[in-house]
Every structure is written in structure tokens, then in C-alpha cells.
Design goal:
The protein is α/β, with parallel strands linked by helices. It contains six helices and five strands. The chain has two domains: 50 residues; 206 residues, Pyruvate Kinase, Chain: A, domain 1 (3-Layer(aba) Sandwich). Helix content is 60%, strand content 13%.
């Protein structure tokens, strides 16, 4: 049976850990509020831009812009951009993304190969030790996330795609749904996907085209790179908000568990102390009776 001093020492240790988890929960809650506002503001523009460009892509030829080119049979590898967090203590946030990326790698690594763009320290440390080809990496950007970070990532992906080094670019990240729910999303970034026409729409004949001013090439030259940057930026914002939500939930669970542990240890300590007092009383009574 442990002594009282050992139990008191353990209770103090659990209380110290509880103070840390409470502080981390409050910090994550305050950061989540700002991150959620940024995601809410960025989502409508990014989603509408994606719908418009998907519609445009169905009405132009593949050679209208290099970012629209659908590669034929190519031996170039696929580029997968994995977005994880820089820190842990956020439940299964990083594990779910890494698992999704590993499943994708298992499906594509055997054909033409796979290259990775790693965003976040956790994903970088995981895949670096497993021999994957890493094209580029970014760490420490979520502490002060800016649009310029998304631009650098998007430009590296566009350069690799247009130069023929990779045949396609995919994103895998955690999408923010709610405080208690995050969803791992795998989506194709390049080439820009086209809308799938329904059978009814295809039967109606050719789709109505747009009138371009000044020209389709000039509009695509400005619009498509910006679209890729916006989609990467939205994915980064989604991942940042999901990370804070996952950490807040994990720390809340840790606080509740530590409270239950403190209560159980306190009850056990009282029982041990009561047993010691009872034993001492019995010894005193036994000694008095012996005299």
C-alpha cells in the first residue's frame, strides 16, 4: 500500500497537469474563435470560385491553359500536399490526416510514383523517416498564417505541374465542421477538375459558351493561378481551425479525466489515512488492555 506522502505527491502532480490542460484549452478556444471567423469569410469566395472555374473548364479545350491540361498516359509521379499541425496534444487530428495520406500513398506509390509536399512538423517528421520523396516542406506557418504562405505552396505545385515533373496535384487536410467534428478531405488541386455533365444535360447538346474580354488566354492567365492559391489558402485555414477545435476538445477531455483522477486519489488517500488512524487506535487500546 503506498504511503500518504506518495499519494499527496501524485495528487499535486495531477493538479499541476490539470492547470496546464486548462490553460491550453482556454488558449485554443480563443484562437479557434479567430480561426473560425477567417474560415467563414474565406469559404464562400473559394467555393464560388471553384464552381465558376469548374464550369469554365468544361467549355474550353485542354490547351486553353497549362493548368487545365489533362495529362495523357504519363510516367510522371503524383504530388500529394499533406497538411498537418506543428504540434501535438490535439487528439487524432494528425493521425487521421497521416492515415489518409498513407492510404493514398499505398494506392499510387506503385504505379508512377508519389512525391510529397509536407506542411506541418508532424507530417514532415512522420514521412521523412519512411523514405518518401519530399519535394518541399513548410513548418511553423500556422502560428501566423498569411496568404503569402499559400502563394508559396501553390506556386511550387503549379511549377511542378506545368513543367511536367508531376502529373497531378492532390490536397489532404482536415476540414473544419464543428468544434467536435473534423473531416479528412482528399481533393484534386491540379489539373483543375471539370464538371461532370449529367445525361440530361449532355442530351441537350453543346453547352453555352462565355464571351471573354479581353481574351480567354488573358483571363485564364490571371484567374487560374489565383484560384489555386485561394484553394490552398482555404485548406490551410480549414486545417488551422480544425486543429484548434481538436486541441480544445482534447484538453477539455483531459481536464475532466484529471478531475476524476483527483477525486479518486483523494478518496483513496482518505481511506489510507483512516486505516492508519484506526490501526493506531487499535494499538493504543490493545496496549491499555495488556497493562
Amino acid at each position: 500500500m503506498p504511503s500518504l506522502i506518495d499519494i499527496r505527491r501524485r495528487v499535486r502532480a495531477v493538479k499541476s497537469t490539470q492547470q496546464i490542460t486548462k490553460a491550453m484549452k482556454m488558449i485554443s478556444a480563443s484562437r479557434l474563435r479567430r480561426a473560425q471567423e477567417r474560415v467563414t469569410l474565406a469559404r464562400p469566395f473559394a467555393q464560388q470560385m471553384l464552381r465558376v472555374l469548374n464550369s469554365l473548364a468544361t467549355r474550353v479545350e485542354d490547351d486553353a491553359h497549362p493548368l487545365l491540361a489533362q495529362p495523357a498516359e504519363s510516367s510522371a509521379p503524383v504530388l500529394l500536399i499533406v497538411i498537418t499541425a506543428d504540434r501535438g496534444l490535439c487528439g487524432s487530428f494528425n493521425t487521421n490526416v497521416i492515415k489518409g495520406a498513407s492510404n493514398f500513398a499505398r494506392d499510387h506509390n506503385g504505379s508512377n510514383g508519389l512525391e510529397l509536399g509536407l506542411i506541418g512538423r508532424k507530417g514532415r517528421d512522420f514521412f521523412r523517416r519512411r523514405g518518401f520523396t519530399v519535394q518541399y516542406e513548410e513548418v511553423g506557418i500556422f502560428s501566423a498564417l498569411k496568404f503569402s504562405h499559400a502563394q508559396n505552396i501553390a506556386r511550387a505545385a503549379m511549377e511542378a505541374f506545368t513543367s511536367g515533373k508531376v502529373s497531378a496535384v492532390y490536397l489532404v487536410y482536415n476540414e473544419f465542421k464543428s468544434v467536435i467534428s473534423q473531416k479528412v478531405v482528399l481533393e484534386r488541386l491540379l489539373p483543375i477538375p471539370r464538371l461532370e455533365l449529367t445525361a440530361e444535360a449532355a442530351a441537350q447538346g453543346p453547352q453555352v459558351d462565355y464571351l471573354y474580354e479581353p481574351s480567354a488566354a488573358a483571363i485564364f492567365g490571371d484567374l487560374l493561378p489565383r484560384h489555386v492559391e485561394v484553394q490552398v489558402y482555404r485548406a490551410l485555414l480549414e486545417s488551422a481551425a480544425a486543429e484548434h477545435a481538436a486541441r480544445m476538445t482534447a484538453m477539455d477531455t483531459a481536464v475532466r479525466n484529471s478531475t476524476e483522477m483527483i477525486e479518486a486519489l483523494t478518496l483513496y488517500m482518505n481511506k489510507v489515512r483512516q486505516a492508519a488512524i484506526t490501526r493506531e487506535i487499535i494499538e493504543v487500546v490493545s496496549g491499555a488492555q495488556a497493562l
